[in-house]
Write a structure and sequence with these properties.
CATH class: Alpha Beta
Distance between the termini: 38 Å
Helix content: 25-40%
Oligomer: single chain
Strand order of the largest sheet: 1-2-3-5-4
Structural class: alpha+beta
Number of domains: 1
Number of helices: 7
Order of helices and strands: EEEHEHHHEHEEHEEH
CATH architecture: 2-Layer Sandwich
Radius of gyration: 18 Å
Strand content: 25-35%
């Protein structure tokens, strides 16, 4: 079977060009503008010097990390109304921000945070597929920058980040397994999957579903292999950004 021709002419196993613009939001403890192809997301970390009330009431030690996610009205071709205008957070945004929060908490030692809360805000400036995976990948970089700032200020005695995480999408489009889907591919995908993984190669979350279709074990393994390859490239890009080589 011939290879699929992708809208941006990428190979099936190639991620989109990834870029991290560090310190994008000066008022945040750590921030980046992450660009994955045409998808652009601001990820920023704010520090609240208090644990959540529920932790204090239940006498739970340590700190907490939580996330919020939103798509700005002009991030898509058709204007997306703000959640505040609707009076409620839509189900998709709620699901994504929960994913971001639990993905980061999987690799953060909350005891080492002390009695404080880290707020992770992910705001989509431009959406061309993979906003949740770009948000997770960028938020990890922003978190690293925030922790460095806190340690420099001697507010943290130890680094609470156990290892880095990243996320990428994979799917089956026109019978072909593809890595890092853009919007045009995502809307045509018969199978769509998001994979969140640690730098040491352990899974945090795998979200996959057939869109009025089924997929075989062989196709699942092919998609996971693509995801691993893409994640290796993302971890390399994170390292380069944080080491000052990008």
């Amino acid at each position: 079977m011939p290879s699929a021709v992708r809208p941006d002419r990428r190979a099936p196993d190639a991620i989109r060009r990834i870029r991290f613009r560090k310190h994008f939001a000066p008022g945040a403890a750590g921030s980046v503008l992450v660009e994955a192809g045409k998808t652009r997301v601001i990820c920023a970390i704010s520090v609240e010097e208090a644990a959540p009330r529920w932790m204090r009431e239940q006498k739970v030690s340590g700190g907490w990390l939580t996330a919020e996610y939103s798509m700005l009205p002009y991030s898509t071709e058709d204007r997306k109304p703000r959640d505040i205008a609707k009076g409620r957070l839509d189900g998709r945004s709620q699901e994504i921000q929960r994913l971001i929060g639990r993905s980061l908490r999987a690799v953060v030692d909350l005891e080492k945070l002390g009695a404080r809360t880290l707020w992770v805000d992910c705001d989509v400036l431009q959406a061309d597929g993979g906003t949740r995976t770009a948000a997770i990948t960028g938020a990890c970089v922003a978190l690293d920058l925030a922790v460095r700032k806190l340690r420099k200020a001697k507010l943290l005695a130890e680094n609470p980040i156990q290892e880095r995480i990243a996320a990428v999408s994979v799917g089956i489009v026109g019978g072909h397994a593809l890595l890092d889907l853009c919007y045009a591919e995502d809307k045509e995908a018969s199978v769509d999957m998001n994979v969140v993984m640690t730098a040491s190669g352990r899974f945090i979350e795998v979200q996959g579903a057939g869109e009025e279709a089924t997929f075989s074990q062989e196709e699942l393994m092919a998609m996971l292999a693509l995801a691993r390859k893409g994640l290796a490239d993302l971890f390399a890009a994170q390292r380069a950004a944080l080491d000052g080589r990008a």
